[in-house]
């Protein structure tokens, strides 16, 4: 058992090794929470989590991929995320990985908008201006949401990608784009 648990170390600074029983207990906690909240359109399932773990264990996906996907899957469950972190190798920093993912998402959205509005430079510049005003706190989330909805009319996928940058309780975020 020592060889199978040698990879498992708690990230508490105490260098305490985790056991197979710890892993089983954690997997049961994940299954209980994710399967307990399942809805018809929810992709949050224990099966998805187990599949990710299997893919990672078989070296089909790397630490970057598994961490970003697990953090998305377990969003809203800080206890499960903390438990997941305990099983990560000591040299893996999930915050750095998530920051990198966020930066990549930011760049990807800007590039998508730039490409989509390549024949309409004014719309692209408007997007950049709205984004800048929101990030520099010159516009509220609600006003930003409404302006982006208008700007992205006919480009619902861009609005969907942008919504994740707004607080979930922002009026208009959950509305259909073409109210």
Automatic annotation (TrEMBL):
Gene Ontology biological process terms from the UniProt entry = negative regulation of transcription by RNA polymerase II
Signal sequence, start to end: none
| Keyword tags | Nucleus, Repressor
User: Where is the protein situated, by its record's location annotation?
Assistant: Nucleus
Entry's InterPro entries? PAH, PAH_sf, Sin3-like
Major localization listed first in the record, in broad terms: nucleus
Keyword Oxidoreductase appears in the UniProt entry? no
What Gene Ontology cellular-component terms does the record carry? Answer: chromatin; histone deacetylase complex
What's a single GO MF annotation on this record? transcription corepressor activity
Q: Name the chain's protein.
A: Paired amphipathic helix protein sin3-like
